[in-house]
Amino acid sequence: MPTAVDGKVEEESAAKDRAAASTLGWAGYGPRSVRFLDGLRARWAVQSLERRFTIAASLVVGLSMLTLGYWVERRIRIGWEQGMAEIGAHYLQALLAPHVLELEHADTLSEDSKNRIKAQITDSRLGQRVTKIKIWSRTGKLIYSTDKAKEGAQLQPSRLEQLSRGQVVVSPHGNSHDDEEPGQHSLETYAPIHKPGTNTILGFGEFYEVSLSLDREIQQLRYATWFLILNVAIIIGFLLYLTIRRASHIISSQQAELEANLARASALAKRNNTLRRAADRARLDAAVSNEIYLARIGADLHDGPIQMLSLLMLRLPDEPAELRGQLERLIQQTLAELRNLSAGLVLPEIRDLSPSDTIEAAIKRHEQQTGTGVMRSIGILPDQMPEAIRFCAFRVVQEALMNAYKHAHGRGQHVATRFAAETLEILVSDDGPGGEAAPPDVPQPRPRLGLRGLETRVKALRGSLTITQQPQGGLLLTVSLPVRRRSLRTKVE
Predict the structure, then answer these.
(1) 460: which residues sit within 8 A by CB, 6+ positions away?
(2) Three-state secondary-structure class, residue 425
(3) How far is the first Cα of the chain from the last one, in angstroms, to the nearest whole number?
(4) Are 172 and 78 in contact (CB under 8 A)?
(5) CB of 400 within 8 A of CB of 450?
(6) Among 288, 341, 344, which Cα is nearest to 492's?
(7) Of 73, 71, 89, 94, whose CA–CA distance to 169 is shortest?
(8) Rounded distance, CA 142 to CA 107, Å?
(9) HEC states along 312-351?
(10) Candidate from 238-247, 281-290, 347-356 with smallest mean pLDDT
(11) Winning range, highest mean pLDDT, from 115-129, 153-167, 338-352, 369-383
(12) With contact defined as beta carbons under 8 Å apart, do 427 and 378 qualify?
């Protein structure tokens, strides 16, 4: 066994394998066939629909007509041959039956009977049509033949069974005999020979009949059949071509119309997409502008009426003291209301805060105002969100916590957030009042927006707001705000 030295043995072996494959024709055989099929597919793909239909219809009609023509010709020839054989068998029955009556009781023919049969062929018109005659016994044994066939030959069992049932068996026979002229065809016919006037079979005759007239008739019939089939195929093909051409033109026009409609629909979709993005930007801008407007109102309240009332309180007359006390209490209540309202309208500076920090700022502001604690579960949120979304998130937490403080006295306040599928979800819950009264020494801040106003604000951003009663008591407020990634860079100047 050779040992590899520096890889030479392996290289020589691989080279021999490549040479053998090239010699046997393996190399490139697969790729060539694949390239040929790919070429056919490519040429077929570039053809028009009309041409592809025409080629396919031509192949189908052509193969169908060829099959039909072959079958019709074959059936006609078989029918003619069988008919000619039946006529010849009756003719032979009339001529041979009187000379083979002795076969009813014996399996051989006398020399006198053989001579009479031979005279019938040579001295009558039968010899012009029948070139050879054989007579078989009922057991299938050859007892007479006009050619050099050896007596004692045995007939095939299957053919003997057919003849015993009274059938006439025929098959075309070519010029395989020496006594037949070149190009001459004959019919090989087997027929039972009956006793005249009865159904008793005396034996079986085999004769070869010249089929020149039959061949001429069949040849003429073949030409007529193929001519008819060809005309029918041409007419069918022409009608199919017209139908396919019309259908192809209709399909082409509809395809062009569909392409035009598709182009228009695509243009409309692009335009609608542009308008939708513009509407989204306008909606976000409107939300931000609303917050700016509310902040300005709060600032105006602080700088206007609050300052004026404070100045009015400083200039109240000292006398009478009772009237001054009543006016001071009234002015202080009005100032408290205005300051509370101004503080609710003015948002803290959250433009530069992340979404998580914005929600945290709303929670801390509520804790400072109410002196209560809020549990929080703030999930991982994107670093950037549109300003309108952050403003809305702040208002949602602010209003939900205010309602929880008002109706549940701050029991079990909890804020949770999560972000999934480009949706910010905020959940604010409480444990309900639990039969306790609000602490009298803690001020009760009024809701600034109300749930209806909060729902309007959320729906303006295509979000949803739901409030459900919890089994253990209390309410759960859930807000979902869609956040589109492409809108994360949208900011209001």
Answers:
(1) 283, 286, 287
(2) strand
(3) 86
(4) no
(5) no
(6) 288
(7) 89
(8) 9
(9) HHHCCCCCCHHHHHHHHHHHHHHHHHHHHHHHHHCCCCCC
(10) 281-290
(11) 369-383
(12) no
Is residue 117 packed enough to be buried (19+ CB in 10 Å), middle (13-18) or exposed (0-12)? buried
Give the Cα separation of 229 and 62 in Å (integer): 10
Contact 134, 209 (CB under 8 A): no
Task: Classify residue 484 by its DSSP letter.
Answer: -
In one letter, which amino acid is 139? T
Q: Among positive and negative, which fits the CA dihedral 129, 135, 136, 142?
A: negative
In degrees and rounded to multiples of 5, residue 421 shows phi and psi of 55, 40
Q: Cβ neighbours of residue 404 under 8 Å, at least 6 residues apart? A: 410, 413, 428, 429, 430, 475
Residues 6+ apart with CB under 8 A from 76: 218, 221, 222, 225
Strand-pair category, 375-378 with 414-420? parallel
C-alpha span between 453 and 408 (Å, rounded): 21
The H or E element containing residue 5 is none
> Which residues are CB-neighbours of 441 under 8 A, at least 6 positions away?
none
Mention every residue, 6+ apart, whose C-beta is less than 8 A from residue 51. none
How far is 313 from 492, CA to CA, in rounded Å? 41
pLDDT in tens, 367-400: 888 889 999 999 899 988 888 888 888 888 988 8
Asked if the model's pLDDT at residue 480 lies above 90, the reply is yes
| Residues comprising the chain, all counted | 493
Task: Give the CA-trace dihedral at 210, 215, 218, 223, to 10 degrees.
Answer: 180
The CA distance from 86 to 441, in Å, is 131
What tokens does 271 get? 């335009």
R_g over Cα of the chain? 56
The per-residue pLDDT for 347 is 61
Q: How many Å apart are CA 493 and CA 480, to the nearest integer?
A: 26
Q: CA–CA separation, 407 vs 347, rounded Å?
A: 24
Give φ, ψ of 194 to 5 degrees: -95, 155
C-alpha span between 33 and 173 (Å, rounded): 44
- 253 token code pair: 């026009």
Could you tell me which residues come within 8 angstroms of residue 107 by beta carbon, excluding any fewer than 6 positions away?
137, 138, 139, 141, 143
Distance CA 397, CA 403 (A): 10
